[in-house]
Amino acid sequence: MQNSIQQALYLSFQRQKWSELRKSVPLTLSQEELENLRGMNEKLSLDEVTDIYLPLSRLLNLIVGSKQQRGMIVDKFLEQRASHSPYIISIAGSVAVGKSTTARILQTLLQRWPEHPKVDLVTTDGFLYPLADLKRKGLLQRKGFPESYDMKMLVDFISSVKAGDKHVLAPVYSHVSYDRCHDQHQVIEQPDILILEGLNVLQTGLDSPVDIRRPFVSDFVDFSIYVDAKEHLLKEWYQQRFLQFRKGAFSDPKSFFHHYASLSDEEANSISANIWDTINGPNLQLNIQPTRERANLILQKGPNHLMDKVLLRK
Ligand SMILES: Nc1ncnc2c1ncn2[C@@H]1O[C@H](COP(=O)(O)OP(=O)(O)O)[C@@H](O)[C@H]1O
Ligand SMILES: CC(C)(COP(=O)(O)O)[C@@H](O)C(=O)NCCC(=O)O
Hints:
One of its GO terms (molecular function) is pantothenate kinase activity. This protein is α/β, with parallel strands linked by helices. It is built from 9 helices and 9 strands. The protein has one domain: P-loop containing nucleotide triphosphate hydrolases (Rossmann fold). The strands form 2 sheets. The protein has a 7-stranded mixed beta sheet with strand order 1-9-8-7-2-6-3. A two-stranded antiparallel sheet has the order 4-5. Strand 8 (297-301) and strand 9 (307-313) form a beta hairpin. Helix 3 (31-40) runs antiparallel to helix 5. The longest helix is centred in the first third of the chain and has 32 residues, at 46-77. The radius of gyration is 20 Å and the shape is globular. Ligand PAZ is lined by residues 95, 99, 125, 143-144, 199, 275, 279-280.
């Protein structure tokens, strides 16, 4: 983004300044919360949680609170019973930037606030077309591209959640089978906050033919976050995660990529570099990065996943 455009749109905070904005958020996390956060990612530094994510949870708590108050005012004005429309936060960014880690940290931190104890998390992977459909349509090498997602299903889902429906089902994705789970669903039952995480959540589908255009995910989102990093770091993180998967998910005989489990480090690195250069890299440049400046907040990471800068839309 050009500097002048960035200055026009965003307030910019270097890491130190941002961390001072934690203010009254309690410094300490309970033992259970600490274990929960450590369990989700052993490489996650707790300084990162206190310096970056606690101020962010404080900001989100204030913003959600103002929306809840507005809802109460409208209910009073209309003399109607309290309506229940969850607050929706979306998290976008490249493959391997750390969207799911960020989403899980925010879920843990946001549910500590008494005003919104029920925070659910859904990832858009589940809305990828089933593997058989992707194969039939010749889209196996386009996973993560806009055409690989069932956007109608995703928009219908988020619209039902936002409407306050009591029981909404989300499909679930498995990195082991590389496919939608056919016998498993996530049930969403009127949370206070729903976090929706996926590389496509800021996309508009404006390239689609006019007759299949429909509302965008962002029409239902109250606050959007884009997690950003330079591409050479993203490729490095993707390759590191691929090496971890080789020891973890790929070692499961049921894994779609079980044949990768026996690769040497060198072979694994060459395959993951190729997947990055032919699929995830081009998808980032063509379809994900161009959506960055639609976000209400941009988190800019540097080496080792440490946050360098936070940009907050004015
Ligand atoms: N804050 C963080 N600190 C250290 N490692 C992280 C952090 N966030 C993500 N990672 C690592 O980076 C890789 C990608 O993270 P992940 O959350 O799976 O990304 P995404 O959901 O965007 O694909 C994983 O190996 C994860 O362990
Ligand atoms: C399923 C995904 C599109 C989702 O991405 P993520 O949740 O990792 O951001 C991605 O993990 C993927 O499978 N990309 C296709 C190429 C690859 O195997 O990495």
